[in-house]
Amino acid sequence: MNEPLVPCACASKCQAVSLRRQIEALKREIEMLKTDKEAAFSRGYLIACCNIEHMHHEEGVAFDVLAELQLSRSDVRRMNLTDYDKKALRRIENARGQSLFREGRKERNR
């Protein structure tokens, strides 16, 4: 015959552990979404700066604006830019005679 199920004596503890795991999984998911959102923003920002160079031939302005984003070369490589944007980025890099990327310049005091 069917015996009634007896709840575990530690049911509330088991439930708490399960909830903690769910919370941690959600926190990791939020961090991944933030990272994806930041990467998409940075890529769009960089492409907008490339468009400043392409459309207005203002390499110096594009350099100043893009330098504020403080990208590294590896950040840019991960963006999979088109040749069109890579060409503009090279002109922007050469505009000031100094490094556009954070690993190539000294940190500024803010």
Order of helices and strands: HHHH
Tally of individual helices: 4
Between the first and last Cα atoms, what is the distance in angstroms? 76 Å
The low-confidence runs, each spanning 5 or more residues with pLDDT under 50, are none
Report the count of strand segments.
Answer: 0
C-alpha-based Rg, rounded: 25 Å
Q: Which class best fits the helix and strand makeup?
A: mainly alpha
Helical residues, percent: 55-70%
Amount of beta strand: under 5%
Give the rounded overall mean pLDDT.
87
Q: Using the alpha-carbon principal axes, give the shape.
A: rod-shaped
> What profile does the largest beta sheet have?
none
What is this entry, summarized?
Keywords: Coiled coil. α1 (11-56) packs antiparallel against α2 and α2 (59-67) packs across α4 (83-93).
What does this entry look like structurally?
Keywords: Coiled coil. By secondary structure, the chain is an all-alpha fold. The chain has a domain at about 35-105. Helix content is about 65%, strand content about 0%. It has helices at about 10-55, 60-65, 75, 85-95. Helix 1 (about 10-55) packs antiparallel against helix 2 and helix 1 (about 10-55) crosses helix 4. The longest helix is centred in the first third of the chain and has 46 residues, at about 10-55. The termini are far apart.
Indicate the topology.
Layout: H1 11-56, H2 59-67, H3 73-77, H4 83-93
Coiled coil: 16-43
Keywords: Coiled coil
